[in-house]
């Protein structure tokens, strides 16, 4: 993966089209393109000595991704280990909570033809605790991100979160040990505490690991490079960042897939204590890798959270726009000038709030951010059904004849999660627009759930 990496065929076609456009522009006699040179750019220690593209280069040369720094791979490996540990334990929660301890078993293992279980609390309790766990690990990142932005920075927040999550993993092991697992009330109490503690660690970790991996690549400007073949290309930082995240999510999916498949069989043939201990052992790699690379990671100091100021701006923009008439309120809140009253240029002298330390452009960015968030308003509905689907599929698989195959694996919920790494690029290539891909995926999921519901009615 060293060296310049080839760009996507879409960008190759785009470069060819731009080259033809430039040739047509040149043949028309126009010669108003601007030549860029190193002298046009300030020395910053990151882009020094690079050749920057002219307007002609930007239109005619193929664009490629730059070399990915190795410290980004270290962070991706940390994420792999964390996802292995999280999904490896989470995939056996349903059977641990719902099913009873098999007769004569002290570990919860069901064996080839038996059903693994521990607490015997039924499907309603297992679905409820699984749903709470999903809610918890998605809410805590809000606080983890705020602490990182205002107090500790991303790297320190990640290190502390790993330590907290490790405590939760240990508690999870304790809840499944022989001698503890036989006492369902004590095991349940320990298990719930483990979920809460692990959620705190996972939330602080997940909020900061993705931004940290992107921070490892510092270049932000286009520059020209010559490949071994002699071809001159434009190295695009945007493509490089996209490539970093592509590998980052590849590591995530590898960790999650291996963790889920292996732990379902550990649960079935050995017991829950092994299904919780092995992910903990893999998770112990996180602090080791973080310590080894502590002097290699690019870190950004805390610079303050934009969340508080964004909410202040939003609240300020709403002043005077609410009415007892809902139609009038709707029109006021969606008026074209809604954000104008919250811009700094709207205030003069001491009338400007002390917290307003930004300019009008920053308010425009907040506007775009809130507009983008409207897409996510449908996500709670999606995740509510999706999480119910996963938990209930495992419960349904427990009633089937699986002939030695783990029930959690037979539920196909493992594959359904990981198949997104394959389907997402395909859908982007087919539809182009993200909203079209989201719509198609949601419709497909709805049809699938209806089909599964029919199967459940037939088998019940």
From TrEMBL:
<feature type="transmembrane region" description="Helical">
    <location>
        <begin position="244"/>
        <end position="263"/>
    </location>
</feature>
<comment type="similarity">
    <text>Belongs to the major facilitator superfamily. Proton-dependent oligopeptide transporter (POT/PTR) (TC 2.A.17) family.</text>
</comment>
<feature type="transmembrane region" description="Helical">
    <location>
        <begin position="269"/>
        <end position="292"/>
    </location>
</feature>
<dbReference type="InterPro" id="IPR000109">
    <property type="entry name" value="POT_fam"/>
</dbReference>
<keyword id="KW-0472">Membrane</keyword>
<keyword id="KW-0812">Transmembrane</keyword>
<dbReference type="InterPro" id="IPR036259">
    <property type="entry name" value="MFS_trans_sf"/>
</dbReference>
<dbReference type="InterPro" id="IPR018456">
    <property type="entry name" value="PTR2_symporter_CS"/>
</dbReference>
<keyword id="KW-1133">Transmembrane helix</keyword>
<keyword id="KW-0813">Transport</keyword>
<dbReference type="Pfam" id="PF00854">
    <property type="entry name" value="PTR2"/>
</dbReference>
<feature type="transmembrane region" description="Helical">
    <location>
        <begin position="158"/>
        <end position="180"/>
    </location>
</feature>
<protein>
    <submittedName>
        <fullName>Uncharacterized protein</fullName>
    </submittedName>
</protein>
<feature type="transmembrane region" description="Helical">
    <location>
        <begin position="186"/>
        <end position="209"/>
    </location>
</feature>
């Amino acid at each position: 993966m060293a060296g310049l990496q080839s760009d996507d065929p879409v960008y190759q076609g785009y470069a060819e089209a731009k080259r033809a456009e430039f040739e047509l522009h040149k043949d028309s006699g126009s010669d108003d393109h601007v030549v860029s040179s190193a002298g046009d750019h300030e020395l910053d220690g990151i882009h020094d000595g690079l050749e920057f593209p002219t307007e002609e280069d930007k239109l005619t040369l193929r664009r490629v991704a730059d070399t990915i720094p190795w410290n980004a791979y270290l962070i991706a490996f940390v994420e792999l280990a964390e996802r292995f540990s999280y999904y490896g334990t989470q995939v056996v929660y349903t059977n641990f909570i719902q099913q009873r301890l098999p007769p004569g078993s002290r570990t919860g293992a069901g064996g080839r033809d038996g059903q693994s279980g521990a607490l015997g609390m039924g499907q309603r309790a297992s679905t409820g605790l699984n749903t709470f766990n999903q809610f918890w690990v998605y809410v805590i990142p809000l606080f983890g991100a705020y602490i990182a932005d205002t107090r500790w920075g991303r790297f320190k927040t990640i290190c502390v979160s790993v330590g907290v999550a490790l405590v939760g993993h240990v508690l999870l092991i304790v809840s499944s040990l022989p001698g503890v697992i036989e006492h369902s009330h004590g095991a349940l109490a320990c298990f719930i505490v483990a979920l809460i503690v692990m959620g705190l660690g996972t939330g602080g970790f997940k909020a900061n690991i993705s931004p940290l991996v992107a921070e490892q690549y510092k270049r932000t400007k286009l520059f020209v490079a010559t490949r071994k073949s002699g071809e001159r290309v434009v190295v695009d930082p945007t493509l490089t960042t996209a490539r970093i995240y592509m590998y980052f999510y590849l590591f995530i999916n590898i960790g999650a897939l291996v963790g889920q498949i292996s732990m379902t069989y550990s649960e079935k043939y050995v017991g829950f204590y092994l299904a919780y201990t092995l992910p903990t052992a893999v998770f112990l790699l996180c602090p080791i890798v973080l310590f080894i690379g502590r002097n290699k990671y690019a870190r950004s100091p805390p610079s303050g959270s934009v969340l508080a100021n964004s909410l202040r701006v939003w609240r300020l923009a709403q002043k005077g726009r609410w009415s007892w008439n809902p139609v009038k309120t709707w029109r006021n809140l969606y008026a074209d000038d809604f954000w104008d009253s919250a811009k700094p240029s709207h205030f003069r002298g001491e009338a400007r709030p002390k917290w307003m330390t930004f300019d009008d452009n920053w308010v425009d960015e907040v506007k775009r951010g809130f507009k983008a968030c409207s897409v996510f308003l449908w996500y709670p509905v999606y995740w509510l059904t999706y999480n119910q689907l996963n938990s209930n599929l495992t419960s349904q698989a427990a009633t089937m004849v699986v002939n030695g195959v783990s029930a959690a694996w037979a539920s196909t919920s493992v594959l359904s999660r990981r198949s997104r790494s394959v389907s997402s690029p395909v859908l982007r290539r087919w539809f182009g627009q993200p909203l079209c891909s989201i719509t198609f995926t949601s419709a497909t999921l709805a049809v699938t759930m209806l089909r599964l519901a029919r199967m459940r009615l037939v088998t019940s």
